[in-house]
Amino acid sequence: MAHISTLGAGIFTYLDLFKGTIPSGTDTAAECAALFVGTTPGTADADHVRMPSVREFPSIGTPANIVNVPVYGQNTSSQVQGQSDAPTLEVTVNYVASDMEAIHLLIGQPVVFRFMMTDAAVTTNGAADSTLATANTEFYFKGKIEAILVNPALTDATTATVTLSAQSDFFGPATIAAA
Fold this sequence. Notes:
With about 180 residues, the protein is mainly beta. It has two helices and ten strands; from the N terminus they run βαβββββαββββ. The strands form two sheets. Strands 1, 2, 3, 6, 7, 8, 9 and 10 form an eight-stranded antiparallel beta sheet that branches. The chain has a two-stranded antiparallel ribbon with strand order 4-5. It is globular, with a radius of gyration of 18 Å. The model is unreliable at about 130-135 (pLDDT under 50).
């Protein structure tokens, strides 16, 4: 299995949420991936939600933990390993209130997030909608939806900024063959 090795306009990206009971010790990409397996192929079960109408995704991954330290008498500072804080991630969605009802109910609740990047459309439970899907790359993390701020607009689609907090390390990238 290989990660996506070419870029193109046809790359699909999804943000899925597992809102069920998260087993203690869920600490690997494989354990997180198991949470996203639906009970019926091609359909989502009650514990899975896909973030609707995502317009912009944030950068995803483990942030650098580098601190710049001034050195007395030197023109440049040196860099040392420091503490990295879990990032706050902001996702912009095209806001349709009825599409966002399930997301609003999850504010403040612990969930597992899956960012999935693939070359074909994929259902919520990970099954490919097309035989063209050969592999996808997935990042997982535990966290919460902290806020949803609606951005009304007169000239463009109404959008919302959905703020996510990461409450674990990022698990991934994991390469998992599409079904």
